[in-house]
Write a structure and sequence with these properties.
The structure is a single chain. The protein is an alpha+beta fold. It folds into 2 domains: 34-97 and 183-207, Alpha-Beta Plaits (2-Layer Sandwich); 102-180, Pseudouridine synthase (2-Layer Sandwich), CATH 3.30.2350. The chain contains 4 helices and 13 strands. The protein has helices spanning 88-95, 114-123, 160-167, 198-207, and strands at 21-22, 25-26, 34-39, 69-70, 79-85, 103-110, 125-127, 130-132, 136-142, 146-153, 172-180, 183-184, 193-195. The longest helix is centred in the middle third of the chain and has 10 residues, at 114-123. It is elongated and about 70 Å long.
Length: 217
């Protein structure tokens, strides 16, 4: 029951001020949790894995938390900045492609990317009928065998960086997410978790509404 009436619409948007009863008892709201995790390689971004592989929830073991979920994904072979929260509205705003919240990655590839490949990635690469595009790409360092490049995305489609580079003939050797909006991974150790500060939470909230979309009241 919501605000004294039975609500049957599964898409009904519950507001923070709504009074909700379940079996006649008030449903208490969990405290809002916002966490930053330095995801190591080898963990899948899910609560349970059908193949029995280790998951990112191992990083949260021993913490006294209500249920939290990851904000987006990093695939098993990727590492770096991963957020957890139980604030689904905050998370949805960060993930909505229309809000253009940028995500910055450092990627090691085999070989030299070259200007032509950079232009293709920023103009758009098609894979399986889907257009994949980076906001920006720059080479950080070239060695004889491989290169480090920085890629900024605004949409974050499934395995977008790996797919783009594969189409262009490059193999990803390492992929690290270092930044979401203005939030930087910094020196947080691999596998470690820390709460976001109030300023960091609000900074990401503003980033998620910068394109004119407003948080429902």
């Amino acid at each position: 029951m919501c605000n004294g009436r039975v609500e049957l619409d599964p898409q009904w948007l519950v507001r923070e001020t709504d009074a909700i009863l379940v079996d006649g008892k008030p449903l208490l709201q969990s405290r809002a949790i916002y966490l930053m995790c330095h995801k190591p390689r080898g963990l899948v971004t899910t609560a349970d894995d059908t193949k029995g592989r280790p998951t990112v929830y191992q990083c949260l073991e021993g913490m006294d938390l209500p249920h939290v979920g990851p904000v987006g994904r990093l695939d098993m072979d990727s590492e770096g900045l991963l957020l957890f929260t139980n604030d689904t509205i905050w998370a949805s705003a960060l993930l909505d492609p229309a809000n253009h919240v940028s995500k910055t990655y450092h990627v090691r590839i085999d070989g030299d990317l070259g200007a032509a490949a950079i232009e293709r990635m920023t103009q758009g690469v098609r894979d399986g009928g889907e257009l994949l595009r980076a906001k920006s790409v720059k080479v950080l360092r070239n060695d004889e065998q491989d290169s480090w490049i920085e890629i900024v995305l605004q949409e974050g489609k499934n395995r977008e960086i790996r797919r783009m580079l594969k189409v262009l003939g490059f193999e990803v050797q390492r992929l690290v997410r270092l930044r979401i909006g203005d939030l930087v991974l910094g020196d947080l150790a691999k596998g470690a978790v820390r709460p976001l500060t109030d300023a960091e939470v609000e900074g990401l909230r503003k980033a998620g509404t910068a394109n004119g979309r407003r948080r429902p009241q």
